[in-house]
Amino acid sequence: MNPVETTSTPDTQNTNETESVKLIGLTPKAEEIIAYCARVSNPQNQDNPKISNLLTYCVKNGHWSIFEQASMVLEIVTSRGIAPQILRHRSFSFQEFSQRYAAANSYVGYQPRRQDLKNRQNSVDDLDTQTKDWFQQAQSEVWELAYTKYQQALEKGIAKECARFLLPLNTQTRLYMNGTVRSWIHYIELRTGHGTQLEHMQIANKCKQIFCEQLPTVAQSLGWLPPPAS
Ligand SMILES: Cc1cc2nc3c(=O)[nH]c(=O)nc-3n(C[C@H](O)[C@H](O)[C@H](O)COP(=O)(O)OP(=O)(O)OC[C@H]3O[C@@H](n4cnc5c(N)ncnc54)[C@H](O)[C@@H]3O)c2cc1C
Predict the structure, then answer these.
(1) pTM for the whole thing?
(2) Among 25, 29, 49, 26, CA closest to 228
(3) Taking CA atoms, which of 55, 56, 162, 225 is between 20 and 30 Å from 13?
(4) What is the pLDDT of residues 43-99, one digit of tens each?
(5) Coil/strand/helix, residue 136
(6) 120 counts as catalytic
C-alpha cells in the first residue's frame, strides 16, 4: 500500500509541521459497498449506481450500521500528550510506535494558549509574543535536557522501556488508526467540534479532509461537502 500524503493546509497558525495525517488504506469501492448492503431488502435494486439520496436518508434517520460495512486506516503523527485522547475512541483498532522497542527521537513543538479561568477545559489564544516565545524556548530546553539524559540512559544499558520515563509529553509518536466509516463519522464530528483541545481538533480536521476526498458522497450526505450540482 502506498500511503497518500494529505494535502491539507494549516487551519490556524498553531498547526506545526511535525504533526500529520496520511491515508494508509480504505475498503475498495467503499461507498458502493455501503449502499449495496443498505439495500439488502431490495435485491433488484442493489446495484443501482444512484446512492446519494439513499446515504442522505440513512444519515438523517440515524441508520448508522450501514456505515460499518467499510473501513479506513489513517496514519497519525502526533505527541504522547494528544495520543491518549485519540486512543480513547474504543471502536477503532490501533497500532502505536513502541517506545519499548525503538528509541524516540523527536518532539512536537506546540504554541501555548492562556488558561480560560471560567471553563477549565478551555484555553484562549491571546498570549503576548514574549510569553509564546518563552514557551517555545522552554520546550526546546526541556527536550534538549530530557533527550540528552534519555540517550545517556540508553548508553548505560538502561532498557528503552525504562529510559522513556525521562521523556516529556510532547515526544512525537505515530499511530495507525483503523475504523469503520461509522466510527470515523462520529470521531470527526466530535473531535472537530468545540470542547476538543485545539491540537486534537487540527488532527481531526486533517482526518476529515481525507474522509471528504475519499468518501465524497458520504461526506455530502453528512453536509461536510456541498451537494452535487444537479
Ligand atoms: C470534550 C471532551 C472531554 C472529555 N473529557 C474526558 C475526561 O475528563 N475523562 C475521560 O476519561 N474521558 C474524557 N473524554 C473522552 C470521552 O469520554 C470518550 O472516551 C471519547 O470521546 C471516546 O468516545 P467513545 O467512547 O464514544 O468512542 P468511539 O470509538 O468514538 O465511539 C464508540 C461507538 O459509538 C458510536 N457513536 C459515537 N458517537 C455517536 C453518535 N453521536 N451517534 C451514534 N453513534 C455514535 C461510534 O460510531 C462507535 O461505534 C472527553 C471527550 C471529549 C470530547
Answers:
(1) 0.91
(2) 49
(3) 225
(4) 888 988 999 999 999 999 999 999 999 999 999 999 999 999 999 999 999 999 999
(5) helix
(6) no
Q: Establish whether residue 186 lines the binding site of ligand 1, counting it when its CB lies within 6 angstroms of any ligand atom.
A: yes
Residue 28 is placed in which grid cell?
Answer: 475498495
Residues ≥6 apart with Cβ < 8 Å to 155 = none
Q: Is 156 in the pocket of ligand 1 (CB under 6 A)?
A: no
Query: All 3 cell numbers of residue 56?
Result: 442522505
Summary mean pLDDT of the chain: 91
> Cβ distance 122 to 185 under 8 Å?
no
Q: Is the CB of 192 under 6 A from ligand 1?
A: no
Compute the distance between CA of residue 106 and CA of residue 173 in angstroms, rounded to an integer: 9
Name the grid cell of 205: 480536521
Atom number in ligand 1 closest to CA 183: 47
Provide the pLDDT confidence category of residue 227 given band limits of 50, 70 and 90: confident
pLDDT tens-digit profile of 190-206? 999 989 999 999 999 99
